[in-house]
TrEMBL record:
InterPro entries: Aldolase_TIM, TIM_sf, TrioseP_Isoase_bac/euk, Triosephosphate_isomerase, Triosephosphate_isomerase_AS. GO terms for molecular function: triose-phosphate isomerase activity. The gene is tpiA. Homodimer. It is found in: Cytoplasm. GO terms for biological process: gluconeogenesis; glyceraldehyde-3-phosphate biosynthetic process; glycerol catabolic process; glycolytic process. This is Triosephosphate isomerase. PANTHER family: TRIOSEPHOSPHATE ISOMERASE.
Length: 249
């Protein structure tokens, strides 16, 4: 049985006041015990988020990391630093990192390995652009991104990942993949993972991301191969995010 994971991605948004607001709100509600919740906040808020959410079951995560352990890499943040600041998960290969910061599959793999080396859970983000979908290349693109990482890991490492399928055309656009469209790609990803190992495929949590909201989360999460959500915009409003978490229970 896969435990659903709802992960909020604040991107470069939020404030210490919002961190405090989330801390108070999550302390006051009981989340379904069968759901894991994580909040991926900007680096400077990690420590405060860890403290504000410390009495809750919410885990704190980061949005990217360096592929290097330390050294002269001005502006970068290492996996060990994230761990020391309380992060337990980290997004890797978010489409904004791939397109705006030029992270290709090799860069994504290096970051996944860096995360694993410090016992962080990498949430590997994959997804096709609208152009690729219209050219009927969705599966080729998405499975290619999955294989670029999974081919280079050993069995124990593979089992420590979470995969988030995020169609690029649905991120921040208000345009959500239909439950059927999302399920089809999730099933293809699970099929791809089964070629490594049936148990890996069975246990791997596959999140959907792309304009998930309180009013569409339930039908997406009801799909058999959708094990949670990566939530951008709606994770900045505490009531909306809480409603999504509740609908995963
Ligand atoms: C994201 O940033 O990963 C995301 C899915 O954003 P949004 O929910 O705003 O589409």
């Amino acid at each position: 049985m896969r435990m659903p994971l709802i992960a909020g991605n604040w991107k470069m948004n939020g404030s210490l006041a919002l961190v405090e607001e989330f801390g108070r709100a999550f302390a006051d509600v009981s989340l379904p015990v069968s759901v894991e919740v994580a909040l991926m906040v900007p680096f400077p808020f990690l420590d405060a988020a860890g403290r504000a959410l410390g009495e809750t079951s919410v885990t704190v995560g980061a949005q990217t990391l360096s592929d290097q352990p330390s050294g002269a890499f001005t502006g970068e943040v290492s996996a060990a630093m994230l761990r020391e600041c309380g992060a337990r998960l980290v997004l890797v290969g978010h489409s904004e990192r791939r397109t705006l910061f030029g992270e290709d599959d090799a860069a994504v793999l290096a970051r996944v390995k860096a995360a694993l080396s410090e016992e962080l859970t990498p949430v590997l983000c994959v997804g096709e652009t609208l152009e690729e979908r219209e050219a009927e290349r969705t599966e080729a693109v998405v499975l290619g991104q999955v294989e670029a990482v999974f081919d280079a890991l050993d069995a124990a490492e593979r089992a420590r990942l979470v995969v988030a399928y995020e169609p690029v055309w649905a991120i921040g656009t208000g345009r959500t993949a239909s439950p059927e469209q999302a399920q089809a790609v999730h099933a293809a990803i699970r099929g791809c993972l089964a070629r490594y190992d049936a148990g890996l495929a069975d246990g791997m949590r596959l999140l959907y991301g792309g304009s998930m909201k309180a009013d569409n989360a339930a039908e997406l999460l009801a799909q058999p191969d959708i094990d949670g959500g990566l939530v951008g915009g709606a994770s900045l409003k505490v009531d909306d995010f809480l409603a999504i978490c509740q609908s995963a229970g």
